[in-house]
Specification:
Structural class of chain A: alpha/beta
CATH superfamily of the largest domain in chain A: FAD/NAD(P)-binding domain
Distance between the termini of chain B: 13 Å
Order of helices and strands of chain B: HEHEEHEHHEHEHEHHEEHH
Distance between the termini of chain A: 42 Å
CATH architecture of chain B: 3-Layer(aba) Sandwich
Radius of gyration of chain B: 19 Å
Number of domains of chain A: 4
Radius of gyration of chain A: 28 Å
Shape of chain B: globular
CATH topology of chain B: Rossmann fold
Helix content of chain A: 25-40%
Number of strands of chain A: 22
Bound molecules: flavin-adenine dinucleotide, iron/sulfur cluster
CATH superfamily of chain B: Thiamin diphosphate (ThDP)-binding fold, Pyr/PP domains
Helix content of chain B: 25-40%
CATH class of chain B: Alpha Beta
Number of helices of chain B: 11
Oligomer: heterodimer
CATH class of the largest domain in chain A: Alpha Beta
CATH architecture of the largest domain in chain A: 3-Layer(bba) Sandwich
Number of helices of chain A: 18
Strand order of the largest sheet of chain B: 3-1-4-5-7-6-8-9
Strand order of the largest sheet of chain A: 5-4-3-6-19
Strand content of chain A: 15-25%
Chain lengths: 541, 335
């Protein structure tokens, strides 16, 4: 070819120059574990379902959420949301309102009647679940989805466990609970009510079950020693709350004293107020800071007019009054008596001092170990007796609904593996997406959305739900506050900031890839990724 | 601002893209159809701010002109790393002549296009700070003064980097370059020297003058788009950090540009016909130390016993910018 004067070479493209050879480190896309997911005892992929909620695809969000938790409308109301405590956004302004969004999505599912996907092919294996509390329901749901034939035996007249016979209606409306339980039963689970299991081995043998999951909860009220002569009306909290579900409401009188400092104490005191008590007083041994009950619930109780006598113990309960002794905290923070006494009027005293597990059905089960009143299980949720698994309040650990649901899920996975003669192992956990991995410059400022609260008069006289739900706009706003910690949310930053065009955008939903022929390893994408979804890795040279 | 910022969509308009925005609301850089005017394989350093800024600006210009664009390039890093004979990274009509004449070449192309009646083909002339503020300044001032229909883009990395980091009239006071070494009495580049080219351009009363950084992509794109709405001489001055000459990590290029803006040292604004029309407010104001410390060209300021007095003078420059351009809006600090 004839070339112009002084030109000897054909024009070429710089693409011939593979600058990737300059690199000493390479960027790689990763998925890190968001702190919310890490903290969720049910093992929800919160960041994952928020991603769908952000774009308004609530059904997809619900499907992902219910992989781990079949009761989102309930949990969006009663969960103590450890996810929010762990949320990275709290270090920026305020945590993401995960719980409120979960509730919104759970309610959407009920509103539109979304159903779980049909179950897998039947395996022919039979599993008995004892107890229809959250833990039992969660296990039954997961086992049914895996194709096993599941029967739940429940001692009580209705399913739900402490979600029905403990947690009051004004926190968890029963229509919501009923609807979510019905959806689980709808998977083909057999629910036998009023069927207490007295001997688990016999039940297993007689029903030809291949495995058992125990989730009987903790229902025996702990008693306190109060001197003889306490002739007044003495009740226990769980019994009072349970009777709220029956036809006859408990008679507590005008002046109610509740003894204890946990959430149950607050639930009883608030219930008493709603039943018309003029005075509802909690007597608690220690101080507000030491109270095990959740701050938000205490706050709500105080708003409703519940009174608390801090640093006090009941010494004696009489016909219509009680004697309390003032306490003081010593250097170690332990409550010590002072010898100062005071008399309080009381028509009834309700003890809310915690619950023990009724272990009678386990008598004589070989291998089974009991420690401190709870049943020991291994990392796979199996008791010392092969084929019998347990979870929820009856095993060691925190006693909350979400823990129960998590145990149910974990046990179901293990039962499923065990039935096939295998052992389930947890897939390796991703590295934590801690706050220092984020580039928070990119997130816009947005204060946390608040849920509406019922007016105070109706809170003192009715059992209407106290805390309201989000409207769609608020739910979406709140979902979009999520930082998507550790997981790409397709912001195109890496694609944009690469000076070498070495990031390939694969299109919506497909994320990105590096073109290592040209990536020089500058690390700009790593520093500018808002959510910490890229890591640098040394190049093998 | 030439674009309406979007709030509360997780990242608003801060990131390059945002899957929650409609297509029309997205940036040019977020699109797979962007021109990639400056393609892979160029020989710029790792993390080069100029390579990034040039692609941002020229891709935006290509989008704004429906890909009817010619670019003239001054000598400098951008030319050297993109076009070592016979290869080029440019995927647009592009011409290089001399160090000092990019503006004049642009003028010539514009004149030729006018003669040919091709009004839809637009002209960009571009160069680094050396080719713009020093060597090409005469040609540029002429282009402004005649109001030739050219958009001139200066990629300012504050020194002659491709020849080994020598001071230019855009080098900031106290910066170490190979011609302003902090040895003996010297403390780097002097105070009171250098030029503020955006203000000089404004003094020509040309239709459009703007400053931008590689840290604010949407702002930069909007300014290029706006510039293309005018006929006549236009000038955009883009701050492009240089890992080599500034001595910061290659992964910190965008961070440095961001800090230059957030400390007030580099005011980001736009002006029409000699009047400032809009300034980019500082989002989270920071002391100048935050900007100076990560750069080895300022390391001597912090070596014990340190030069607190000089740092204070740099802070005073930032404070002056904040006041002069109204960079901080106390009433609506929340973005
Ligand atoms: C008043 C109160 C309020 C609470 N509030 C909250 C809250 O807001 N948030 C939270 O996360 N947690 C709360 N908890 C704790 C939470 O309710 C429990 O941790 C959770 O319900 C435990 O689930 P589980 O499935 O292990 O047991 P349970 O919910 O107790 O269910 C066990 C079920 O097994 C049945 N059963 C028992 N023995 C037998 C048997 N032998 N045969 C057949 N069935 C049997 C029982 O009837 C019951 O239905 C609260 C608890 C109480 C008491
Ligand atoms: S910001 Fe989102 S992903 Fe990160 S911890 Fe909070 S809820 Fe989880
Ligand atoms: S920068 Fe944005 S697009 Fe790239 S990996 Fe991170 S989140 Fe995903």
């Amino acid at each position: 070819m004839k070339k112009p004067f002084a030109i000897t070479l054909d024009p070429g493209s710089s693409l011939a120059n593979h600058t990737g050879s300059w690199r000493t480190v390479r960027p790689v896309y990763v998925d890190r574990l968001p702190p919310c997911n890490d903290a969720c005892p049910s093992g929800e992929n919160i960041q994952g379902w928020l991603f769908h909620a952000e774009s308004g695809d609530y059904e997809k969000a619900w499907r992902l959420m219910t992989e781990a938790n079949p009761l989102p409308a309930c949990m969006g109301r009663v969960c103590y949301h450890p996810c929010e405590t762990a949320c990275n956004r709290a270090q920026l302004d305020e945590c993401v309102g995960v719980n409120a969004i979960e509730r919104f999505i759970g309610d959407e599912a009920l509103k539109y009647g979304w159903k779980f996907a049909p179950v897998a092919k039947a395996t022919g294996m039979r599993v008995l679940v004892v107890g229809a509390g959250p833990s039992g329901l969660s296990a039954a749901y997961q086992l049914a989805r895996a194709g096993h034939t599941v029967t739940i035996r429940e001692a009580g007249p209705l399913a739900g466990g402490m979600m029905r016979f403990g947690i009051p209606k004004y926190r968890l409306p029963r229509e919501v609970l009923d609807a979510e339980i019905a959806r689980i039963v709808g998977l083909g689970v057999t629910l036998e009510l009023n069927s207490k299991v007295d001997d688990v081995l016999a039940a297993k043998r007689d029903g030809h079950f291949d495995a058992v999951f125990l989730a009987v909860g903790a229902h025996i009220a702990k008693r306190a020693y109060l001197p003889a002569g306490s002739a007044g009306k003495m009740l226990d909290a769980v019994a009072v709350l349970r009777s709220m579900e029956g036809a006859d409401q408990p008679l507590l009188g005008r002046r109610v004293v509740v003894y204890g400092g946990g959430n149950t104490a607050l639930d009883v005191a608030r219930t008493a107020k709603r039943l018309g008590a003029e005075e509802s007083v909690i007597v608690y041994r220690r101080t507000r800071e030491k109270m095990p009950a959740h701050e938000s619930e205490l706050e709500e109780a105080l708003q409703e007019g519940v009174l608390v006598k801090w640093l006090s113990t009941i010494r004696e309960a009489g016909e219509s009054s009680i004697t309390v002794e003032k306490m003081t905290l010593d250097d170690k923070g332990i409550a010590q008596p002072t010898g100062e006494f005071e008399t309080l009027q009381a028509d009834s005293v309700v003890l809310a001092l915690g619950q023990d597990v009724d272990l009678a059905l386990l008598d004589g089960v070989p291998g089974l170990e009991i420690d401190g009143g709870v049943v020991k299980v291994d990392a796979n949720m199996m008791t010392g007796h092969a084929g019998i698994f347990a979870g929820g309040d009856m095993v060691p650990g925190e006693r909350t609904v979400t823990v129960g649901i998590g145990h149910g899920k974990l046990a179901a996975r293990n039962i499923d593996a065990w039935l096939r003669g295998e052992t389930w192992t947890h897939p390796p956990r991703h590295e934590l997406a801690s706050f220092d991995k984020l580039n928070t410059w990119y997130y816009s400022d947005a204060p946390k959305a608040q849920r509406p609260v019922l007016d105070i008069v109706r809170r003192q006289s009715t059992f209407d739900e106290v805390v309201g739900g989000f409207d769609p706009a608020t739910a979406q706003f709140e979902a979009r506050r999520c930082l998507s910690c550790g997981n790409c949310f397709e912001c195109d930053n890496c694609y944009g900031v690469c000076p070498d065009n070495a990031v390939i955008k694969l299109g919506a939903g497909n994320r990105y890839a590096f073109n290592y022929d040209y990536c020089k390893g500058c690390g700009l994408c790593v520093s500018e990724c808002p959510c910490g979804a890229i890591r640098t890795q040394p190049e093998e040279i | 601002m030439s674009y309406q910022p979007i709030r509360f969509y997780q990242t608003g308009t801060f990131t390059v893209g945002n899957r929650l925005l409609t297509e029309e609301q997205r940036s040019v850089q977020s699109g797979r159809e962007r021109t990639n005017s400056l393609n892979s394989g160029h020989r710029a350093c790792q993390g080069c701010g100029e390579a990034l800024g040039a692609r941002y600006a020229i891709d935006a210009a290509m989008a704004a002109t429906n890909r009817q664009l010619v670019a003239a390039n001054a000598t400098g890093c951008l030319e050297v790393f993109s076009t070592p004979y016979p290869e080029t990274s440019w995927q647009i009509p592009w011409i290089h002549s001399l160090f000092g004449n990019a503006a004049a070449v642009g003028t010539g192309i514009a004149a030729a296009l006018q003669v040919q009646g091709k009004r839809d083909v637009r002209v960009v002339a571009q160069g680094g700070d050396g080719g713009t503020t020093d060597i090409g300044f005469g040609c540029l001032s002429g282009m402004f003064e005649r109001n030739d229909d050219v958009l001139y883009i200066c990629y300012d990395n504050e020194a002659y980097m491709n020849t080994g980091v020598q001071r230019s009239s855009a080098t900031p006071p106290t910066a170490r370059t190979n011609t302003t070494m902090p040895v003996g009495e010297s403390t780097g580049a002097r105070f009171g020297q250098g030029k503020n080219l955006p203000l000089i351009a404004m003094a020509h009363e040309i239709p459009y003058v703007a400053t931008a950084t590689v840290a604010e992509l949407r702002d930069l794109e909007a300014k290029v788009r706006r510039a293309m709405e005018f006929r006549g001489a236009r000038y955009i001055h883009v701050l492009v950090p240089c890992p080599l000459g500034w001595g910061h990590g290659s992964a910190e290029t965008i961070k440095m540009a961001r800090l230059a803006h957030e400390t007030g040292l580099f005011p980001v604004f736009e002006a029409e016909h000699g009047e400032v029309k809009h300034v980019s407010k500082i989002r989270r104001q920071l002391p100048v130390e935050d900007y100076l410390k990560p750069q080895t060209r300022f390391a001597h300021l912090f070596k014990p016993p340190g030069h607190a007095d000089l740092v204070a003078r740099i802070q005073a420059l930032a404070d002056r910018n904040v006041k002069r351009f109204g960079l901080v809006d106390h009433a609506e600090e929340a973005t």
